[in-house]
Design brief:
The chain is an all-alpha fold. It contains 7 helices and no strands.
């Protein structure tokens, strides 16, 4: 069935479903680019920074972080490392506060995805109801096999097409939404792991009175 015929058969609910599908595709592309950028660079950068910091090269670690401020973990580390002689508690709070600030960026568009997943099947159901109403309105028991059976067929077609379209949009969006949710949860785990490693390194420096823990330039 051609796209034009599909829309004609699906009825009026096909237009909001088209809007949902276009919006979903646009947001999915943005999130795919976002997560590919993070997953391709961030772990390597963070491991290099921790290695530099462990070797007392604080300036080198800061330079590497500032060169990659487009990564969430870099911004989290910088928020703590750029403090002037913080206590371990202040250092930890800086890490946690910046991590909380990054959560909305990591979860961006999640509510929109959930809205599309919830509303698309309901729009399909609405199309089903409208199609059945049209079918019963066209039904004339005394005209079975006559000209009015065309209206019945069209109404049933509208009901089936709209339902199928709503389910397709919802399933497609749900697949990517769950993938992004999994990436977000894994990112949170990495933030906790790497943040804990940096905090431990800083605490050890602080306890032995090593002033190289401060960013001197």
């Amino acid at each position: 069935m051609a796209i034009g015929n599909l829309f004609a058969a699906g009825g009026v609910v096909m237009w909001p479903l088209l809007g949902f599908s276009l919006l979903g595709v646009a947001l999915i592309i943005e999130r795919v680019i976002f997560w590919v950028k993070i997953n391709s660079r961030q772990n390597r950068i963070v491991r290099d920074v921790l290695k530099l910091y462990r070797l007392d090269n604080v300036v080198g670690a800061l330079d590497k972080l500032q060169a990659n401020t487009d990564l969430p973990m870099s911004r989290i580390f910088l928020a703590a490392l750029e403090l002037e002689e913080p206590t371990p508690e202040e250092f930890r709070l800086a890490l946690e506060s910046e991590a909380q600030a990054e959560i909305p960026i990591l979860k961006r568009f999640q509510n929109i995805f959930e809205t599309i997943v919830g509303l698309a099947p309901l729009l399909g159901l609405l199309g089903t109801v409208l199609g059945l109403i049209a079918s019963f309105a066209s039904l004339d028991i005394g005209d079975v096999g006559g000209t009015k059976t065309t209206g019945v067929t069209a109404g049933i077609s509208e009901a089936l097409v709209s339902t199928a379209s709503g389910l397709v949009v919802a399933i497609f969006t749900l697949l990517f939404a769950n993938t992004f949710r999994g990436l977000y949860q894994r990112q949170i785990a990495w933030i906790q792991e790497y943040g804990g490693q940096l905090e431990l390194l800083y605490r050890r420096r602080y306890e032995r009175g090593d002033k190289s823990y401060t960013p001197t330039r």
